[in-house]
Amino acid sequence: MTPSKEDYLKTIVELGGETQVVNNKQLVQALEVSAASVTDMNAKLLKEGLITHIPYKGVQVTEKGLRIANQLIRKHRIWEVFLAEKLGYDWKEVHADADRLEHVSSDLLIERLFQFLGEPEVDPHGGKIPNKDGTTDNASFCQLIDLGIGEPFLVKEVDDDTDLLEYLTQKGIQLGAHFRLVDKEPYEGPLTLESPDGSKTILGYKAALNIFVEKMED
How far is the C-alpha of 29 from the C-alpha of 35, rounded, in Å? Predict the structure, then answer.
């Protein structure tokens, strides 16, 4: 597996390719490459049995492709934990260097690093770290936008997007933070969150789409 192939597989999975079809336009935008490059790489991955192709729709990963992608995601997220916990990186800073390190790290190094870090279960953004064999234990979190007015919750996971993380940092929203949803404007309007101390935070709908929470009891 070349780094380029690994990146394609990982991107397909991150775009939802485990359960839904990912089209070429999505891959072009996510990877910032040409349409011809995507077509060429899809042909290579299809030949190796790493993806399936649905004519006129797009691609999905096979079980084999998913395991390989998850093993790369495991490396990436373990490096993110190391950078955040041991080198003091902010959660919006870890992604770029973890992207570089994931491709040059042996399996042995990653497992030693995993043990050194105390076998973490999630990365700095709350993303589950896949198992060594490329399988995953699914978390049962829901999107913030799916909560009803008045429901309390804990922030458990956010998308690893630099602009989103910067925005959430400015809003004072971190993993493990406890809020109550007190208002939700119609037609994809902003949400109002209330902290335990009574302070309120206005959050944009687009950001709320990328925040996953655990419902709490009153």
Answer: 9
**φ and ψ at 119, to 5 degrees?**
55, 60
Q: Which residues are bridge partners to 199 per DSSP? A: none
33-68 pLDDT, tens per residue?
A: 999 999 999 999 999 999 999 999 999 999 999 999
> 3: Cβ–Cβ under 8 A, 6 or more apart, which residues?
103
Separation CA 129–CA 167 (nearest Å): 24
* Chain CA centroid to CA 213, Å: 14
Integer Cα distance of 166 and 109 in angstroms: 31
Residues 186-216 as b/e (b if ≥16 CB within 10 A, e otherwise) read eeeebbbbbeeeeeebebeeebbebbbbeee
The model carries a pTM of 0.90
Half-sphere exposure of 60 (CA within 13 A, CB side): 10
**Residue 57: both structure tokens together:** 């729709």
Question: Which helix (H) or strand (E) is 140 found in, with range?
Answer: none
How many secondary structure helices (H) and strands (E) does the chain include? 8, 8
Check: CB of residue 120 under 8 Å from CB of residue 114. Answer: yes
Q: Which amino acid is at 195?
A: S
Residues with Cβ within 8 Å of 42's Cβ and at least 6 positions away in sequence, in order, are: 24, 51, 53, 59
* CA 4/CA 115 separation, integer angstroms: 28
Closest CA to 68 of 137, 157, 8: 8
